[in-house]
Amino acid sequence: MMTCKQLIDFLADYKSGDLPNDQREVFEQHLSLCPPCLKYLETYCDTVDLAKDACKCEDDRPAEMPEALIQAILKACDASDENDCGPCNDNS
User: Fold this and answer.
1) How far apart are the first and last CA of the chain?
2) What gap in Å lies between CA 9 and CA 15, rounded to an integer?
3) DSSP letter at 17?
4) Cα 10 from Cα 35, distance rounded (Å)
5) From the centroid of its chain, how far is CA 44?
6) How far apart are CA 87 and CA 78, in angstroms?
7) Is 38 left (phi over 0), alpha (psi -120 to 50) or beta?
8) Contacts of 2 (CB under 8 A, 6+ apart)
9) Domains in the chain, start-ordered, CATH in brackets?
10) What is the DSSP code string of 11-50?
11) Rounded CA gap, 6 and 67, in Å?
12) Share of the chain residues as helix, strand and coil, in percent rounded to the nearest 5
């Protein structure tokens, strides 16, 4: 019998289909007897799928950093140099 902790250790392999058949049977048997682990698996799979979908949004990003943003960062760095503080000023 598999424990809940052991089940968590095998989640990625189970989702990817890389779990050997004998371990997969024990994994699925545990799921059939443990509603909290079944719910955990569902939320794990949802999270992985959402993360993959989030990475598909690359087309919405500009190919380069906009010039206005570069200028705003440089202006902020100049201002922080004058105040002798901030991340753009290396006093080490």
Assistant:
1) 57
2) 12
3) T
4) 17
5) 11
6) 11
7) alpha
8) 10, 26, 27, 29, 30
9) 4-82 (1.10.10)
10) HHHHHHT-S-HHHHHHHHHHHHH-HHHHHHHHHHHHHHHH
11) 51
12) 75, 0, 25
Task: Tell me whether residue 24 is exposed, middle or buried, using C-beta atoms within 10 angstroms of its C-beta: 0 to 12, 13 to 18, 19 or more.
Answer: middle
At residue 92, the pLDDT reads 40
At residue 80, the pLDDT reads 67
Q: Distance (Å, rounded) from C-alpha 43 to C-alpha 40?
A: 5
Question: Tokens 């598909």 identify what position?
Answer: 56
**Which amino acid does the sequence have at 51?**
A
The maximal CA–CA distance of the chain, rounded, in angstroms, is: 67
Give the model's pLDDT for residue 54. 77
Residue spans of the chain under pLDDT 50: 85-92
CB 24 within 8 A of CB 14: yes
Virtual CA dihedral for 12, 14, 18, 23, nearest 10 degrees? Answer: 120
Pair 36, 28: CB distance under 8 Å:
no
